[in-house]
């Protein structure tokens, strides 16, 4: 009997009730590790209908991407798409056949010789993994760290939907603990299973007993979505690493060289097909009647985010899912968040409205440009400064900056660098709390920003009226290179590293962003590029954690094609201050210690 929307809805509810059994949940996690690109509701239905599937895709994708048509008589796995009753069908690789035009399907399996390379790839993505003993320990540590970075994403939704479930009886602390434990254990189970390891020595049934508290469809969906989306972050990194190693084992297993910012090659530009974007590598051919757009015009259009575009020109096609997360009414699985969008049912995403029109609406590049080019002037621009000014309420200065200097010296930053910042007004100590104050000036030399850092506590903040467009920076006398950091201490740590390596630390422009959000181009960077038109090279020294990596990727997507871009996270540690202190521990000196 042909599947209907109502029958699939009933099957989904029936399957989710089964998933509350711990053994069934563990089986589902193993299946989900092989289909991690599908959203959780689609995984549930696929598990109910084809639990043995190795790789699920739509028939159009099988044929377009791999040249493999679906065999006659295969019915596929029906899954509802969006909020309507439209059904889409997924087919396993076993449902397809080879032709003369078929291309290899990159199904991956972890071999013992791949384990070291996977560990390096995960540490490159997540930073140093603590308590990582052996390959299984590395995977479990990666699960814990990824969960720690994404835990809050759905917590508000879970609290809102807990009434009616057993979670309702838990206070906020116990709710967080139950949620975190289930996600950590489930993500760890998925990583072990997909990498060919037996999870049984690492997990017992009691590790998943908290599952019983998620006993309503809404709470289980929130948990399942959090588990599969978090696991997908690590599995995507693992998949790329394994494919790279299997394609070139010697190259992939070689230990990466310690990056030296002045010598590294630019990040390679992405190359796209016409359907997936445009080619940056070559000037497009001009055909009669076809509009040609230069780099500046393309950059202006690339600056239009999808959320801004939909809010202004297609508001009826926009729906709020949760705080900071939106989807389109046409495609419920197309989610917009943190300046990017991703279509989970299709397995691809983008950074701008232009990407959306080309990839989702299937518009040719020139047509998409025509639609957006006239709107660029009326949309928020990455490079145009805002007209209004905020009045900065600078903290009162202390007569002495001894505590601030001692704090920075303890962090490994040299006395000469500290003295320069104090002398030029970039740094001072406040009263009455004796915080370190890092001041940002505009092009006219007026203070517009003040970041506050506790010297005896973990306090971080900004003075009232601070304008992030003018975050802490150190300008060079004459340079076409700009180095970008998340915070002021990272910036000064890089300056200390330059001194350690015998280079003049103010030879290039240095800019802190005042934090990152992954939402388009940071205001500080956009303003600096507007003020300094001679910039040609940009080095991104952002943190070695998921927010820093996402922010670096988003910045590169926004600026690709206009500047030479260098992605330069610290070789070790979470940030550049960690790397500086490691260097000093390894025998390096700075100008504060060289005479000791």
Q: What is the fold's blueprint, element by element?
A:
Blueprint: H1 5-18, H2 22-34, H3 40-49, E1 56-58, H4 59-66, E2 77-80, E3 87-92, H5 115-126, H6 134-150, H7 155-161, H8 172-194, H9 217-247, H10 249-253, H11 295-302, H12 306-313, E4 318-322, E5 325-328, E6 334-337, E7 340-343, E8 348-350, H13 353-359, H14 365-373, E9 396-397, H15 402-410, H16 415-424, E10 427-431, E11 436-441, E12 447-453, E13 460-462, E14 473-474, E15 481-485, H17 488-500, E16 509-512, H18 523-531, E17 537-540, H19 546-559, E18 564-567, H20 576-585
Parallel strand pairs: 15-16, 15-17, 17-18
Antiparallel strand pairs: 1-3, 2-3, 4-5, 5-6, 6-7, 7-8, 9-10, 10-11, 11-12, 12-13, 14-16
List the total number of helices.
20
Give the biggest sheet: 5 strands, antiparallel
Shape: globular
Helix content: 25-40%
CATH class of the largest domain: Alpha Beta
Q: What's the total number of strands?
A: 18
CATH topology of the largest domain: Dna Topoisomerase Vi A Subunit, Chain: A, domain 2
The first-to-last residue Cα distance is: 84 Å
Strand % is: 5-15%
By secondary-structure content and strand pairing, the structural class works out as alpha+beta
Would you identify the regions where 5 or more consecutive residues have pLDDT less than 50? 250-292, 376-387, 589-596
Instruction: Let me know the average pLDDT.
Output: 82
CATH architectural grouping of the largest domain: 3-Layer(aba) Sandwich
Q: Nearest-angstrom radius of gyration?
A: 26 Å
Total separate domains: 4
Major sheet strand order: 4-5-6-7-8
């Amino acid at each position: 009997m042909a599947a209907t929307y109502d029958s699939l809805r009933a099957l989904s509810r029936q399957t989710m009730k089964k998933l509350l059994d711990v053994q069934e949940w563990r089986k589902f996690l193993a299946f989900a590790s092989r289909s991690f690109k599908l959203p959780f509701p689609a995984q549930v239905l696929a598990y109910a209908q084809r639990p043995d599937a190795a790789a699920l895709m739509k028939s159009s994708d099988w044929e377009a991407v791999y040249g493999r048509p679906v065999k006659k008589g295969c019915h596929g796995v029906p899954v509802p798409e969006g909020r309507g009753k439209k059904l889409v069908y997924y087919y396993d690789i076993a449902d397809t056949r080879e032709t003369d035009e078929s291309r290899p399907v990159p199904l991956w399996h972890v071999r013992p010789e791949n384990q070291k390379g996977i560990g390096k790839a995960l540490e490159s993505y997540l930073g140093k993994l603590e308590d990582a003993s052996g390959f299984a320990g590395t995977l479990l540590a990666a699960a814990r760290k990824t969960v720690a970075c994404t835990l809050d994403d759905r917590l508000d939704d879970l609290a809102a939907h807990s009434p009616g479930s057993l979670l309702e009886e838990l206070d906020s602390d116990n709710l967080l603990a139950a949620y975190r434990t289930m996600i950590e254990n489930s993500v760890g189970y998925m990583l072990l299973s997909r990498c060919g390891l037996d999870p049984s020595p690492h997990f017992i049934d009691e590790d998943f007993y908290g599952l019983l508290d998620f006993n309503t469809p809404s709470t289980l969906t929130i948990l399942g979505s959090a588990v599969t989306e978090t696991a997908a972050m690590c599995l995507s990194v693992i998949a790329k690493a394994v494919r790279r190693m299997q394609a070139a084992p010697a190259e992939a297993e070689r230990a990466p060289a310690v990056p030296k910012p002045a010598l590294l090659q630019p990040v390679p530009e992405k190359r796209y097909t016409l359907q997936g974007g445009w080619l940056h590598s070559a000037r497009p051919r001009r055909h009669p009647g076809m509009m040609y757009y230069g780099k500046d015009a393309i950059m202006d259009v690339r600056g239009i985010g999808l959320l801004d575009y939909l809010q202004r020109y297609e508001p009826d096609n926009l729906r709020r899912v949760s705080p900071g997360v939106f989807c389109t009414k046409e495609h419920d699985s197309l989610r917009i968040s943190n300046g990017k969008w991703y279509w989970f049912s299709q397995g691809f995403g983008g950074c701008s409205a232009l990407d959306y029109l080309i990839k989702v609406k299937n518009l040719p590049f020139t047509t998409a440009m025509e639609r957006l080019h006239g709107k660029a002037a009326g949309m928020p621009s990455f490079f145009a400064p805002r007209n209004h000014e905020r009045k900065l309420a600078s903290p009162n200065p202390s007569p002495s900056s001894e505590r601030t200097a001692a704090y920075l010296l303890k962090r490994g930053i040299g006395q000469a660098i500290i003295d320069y910042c104090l002398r030029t007004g970039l740094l001072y100590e406040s009263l009455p709390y004796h915080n370190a104050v890092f001041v940002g000036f505009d092009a006219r030399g007026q203070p517009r920003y003040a970041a506050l850092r506790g010297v005896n506590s973990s306090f971080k903040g900004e003075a009232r009226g601070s304008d992030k467009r003018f975050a802490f920076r150190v300008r060079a006398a004459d340079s076409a290179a700009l180095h970008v950091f998340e915070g002021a201490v990272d910036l000064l740590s890089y300056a200390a590293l330059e001194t350690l390596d015998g280079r003049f630390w103010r030879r290039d422009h240095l800019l802190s962003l005042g934090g990152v959000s992954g939402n388009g181009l940071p205001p500080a960077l956009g303003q600096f590029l507007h003020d300094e038109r001679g910039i040609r090279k940009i080095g991104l020294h952002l943190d070695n954690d998921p927010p820093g990596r996402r922010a670096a990727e988003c910045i590169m997507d926004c600026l690709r094609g206009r500047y030479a871009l260098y992605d330069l996270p610290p070789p070790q540690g979470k940030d550049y201050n960690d790397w500086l202190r490691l260097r000093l521990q390894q025998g390096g000196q700075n100008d504060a210690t060289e005479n000791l």
